[in-house]
Specification:
144 residues; mainly alpha; 5 helices; 83% helix; 0% strand
């Protein structure tokens, strides 16, 4: 669980430290094309899960959904770069990690399941708070 917290925190840091996006928004055709590509990839990823069974299939599906949500949030951030879009990317990454972690917890036995899910929730809540705080700081910096 500690590794998941580190991974989530690293993803958040990378999101906020990442390169600047172009100031202009994408044209509608480019945006639609990129969105269609994301949706096609998501469909393919979800179809690949069909061959799996039990919880492995659930984990695969959670990963596919998370990947799609993150890609769409990143596309939106690229299209309309601002602090809220950056926060949304961080939140989608955290949410995706959380959903996958919860599914992976299902492979455990007894009390370990509850502990695993609790740890995942704590990590998720921390990343949400950090993302909100980072957006607030960014907004304050722009006002100064």
């Amino acid at each position: 669980m500690k590794n998941q917290l580190i991974a989530i925190t690293a993803a958040l840091c990378a999101t906020f430290a990442g390169g600047a996006y172009a100031a202009d928004t994408m044209d509608k055709a480019a945006y639609k094309s990129a969105k269609d590509k994301i949706e096609a990839q998501a469909k393919s990823d979800k179809k690949a899960c069909d061959a799996m069974k039990d919880n492995a299939k659930d984990v695969c599906q959670a990963e596919a959904k998370a990947k799609e949500k993150i890609a769409k949030a990143e596309l939106d951030a690229q299209n309309r770069p601002d602090a809220r879009a950056t926060e949304k990317v961080a939140l989608m990454k955290a949410e995706g990690e959380y959903e996958v972690a919860k599914e992976k917890c299902e492979d455990l036995q007894g009390a370990a399941v509850a502990t695993c899910k609790k740890d995942a929730k704590v990590a998720y809540d921390k990343v949400k708070a950090d993302a909100k705080q980072a957006r607030t700081k960014t907004g304050e910096a722009k006002k100064s």
